[in-house]
Design goal:
With about 100 residues, the chain is of the alpha+beta class. The chain has a 4-stranded mixed sheet with strand order 1-2-3-4, with helices on one face. A hairpin with a 6-residue loop joins strand 2 and strand 3. It starts with a strand and ends with a helix.
């Protein structure tokens, strides 16, 4: 599975990129046929100014989750929690 990360108006450091790869690399446990994962990192004006948008492409569909937090890492973890549930649900619907 390919994980593509795009940071808007800033350069993400290698530590953050490695964290994203490590966390999102685990989603194939919940749905084996993931084609590609796209992550968009951006900064917002409000106090919880880190925005993470994760788009997971699966056969015949896509799942998009977006979360804001004080750090990119916590936003990625929040997205991962929602993605797990949605991927399990999509897998159950597909293989019924």
């Amino acid at each position: 599975m390919e994980i593509k990360v795009q940071s808007i108006k800033f350069n993400a450091d290698q530590k953050l990129l490695d964290f994203i790869d490590k966390k999102l690399g685990k989603i194939t446990k919940y749905y084996e046929d993931v084609i590609r994962t796209e992550v968009i990192l951006s900064l917002l004006a409000d106090p919880q100014n880190k925005n993470v948008k994760v788009r997971v492409l699966i056969p015949g569909s896509e799942i998009v989750v977006e979360r804001n937090a004080e750090t990119f890492e916590s936003a990625v973890v929040d997205c991962l929690g929602v993605l797990k549930d949605q991927l399990v649900s999509a897998k159950e619907k597909r293989f019924k």
